[in-house]
Amino acid sequence: MPVLAAVPPARLAAWLLALAGLWLALRFDLLIALLAGLLVFNLTHALAPLIERRVSGQGARLLAVTVVSVLIIGLLTLAIVGVVAFFRSEAGSSQALLDKLMTIIEEARDDLPAWLAGWLPQDSGAMRAAVTEWVASHRAELSLAGAEAIQTTARLLVGMVLGAMVALYDELPAPRLGPLGRELLERAGRLAAAFRRIVFAQLKISLLNTFFTGLFLAVVLPAFGVKLPLTKTLILITFVAGLLPVVGNLISNTVITIVALSVSMWVAVVALGYLVLIHKVEYFLNARIVGGEIQARAWELLLAMLVMEAVFGIPGLVAAPVYYAYVKRELVDQGWV
Known about the structure:
- By secondary structure, the chain is mainly alpha-helical.
- Helices cover 82% and strands 0% of the residues.
- The protein starts with a helix and ends with a helix.
């Protein structure tokens, strides 16, 4: 108690409110909005000086922040709309995707064991019938998933707008705040700084992942006479997806494995095995890289990720590095650890 007694009451209240807010973000599926807001906030402050140098006069900084905020939200929104438009287009329609999948299956059929090949559909009509039957039996779950996807997209957009609004608010004359207001503002700044450090670490991780994956796709496989189609595109997908914690690896691995299936079943098995092995090794390297950015040992971060995943599932695993970086900074600055 003597240690807590030395802390100003307003700071204690701000800590409790900050922790409650972080818990509520996970409890009520608001993590995507929180991370989107932090992303736009940090990108805005990082890119605004580039425009500010080309604009002179009073209010140049405010104008720069406004322009960058609009550009970032616009680009992210266009990316979301582009993905939706692709799946609604002829190239991304269900029939086109089924035809591509059947082509991959037909090319892999000769390499599969007889007992496994017998379970595969014979043509796209059989495939469509199987998919239709599955959709009919899971209609309620799919409807719920569709509603959740729309809800998540809405929260993502709201989070981006809020992040831009907070960035703009930072450029306005600071209002007079009481002790609690100043402490809450300090907590928000530390959370944004923790997110920025984690994003910088994730960029390093993505580059490392892209290097090993590119080495496998562009050097190892061709050395054995195997060349995957769209190799450069796969490497680009690996880098972009790698910027997303946890789920990024799942996305890139799935795409690479599907493309490898179009060459051979055994190439797909080897590719998947390599990717799983590399990502298991990278799991510990990632903890070390992120730990270096937030001044935490690898075992601390791994433990935080394990506990958060056990309590909150995949969202907890994604949030663990940011949350732990924030809490660790608070404890270090207070001189408690």
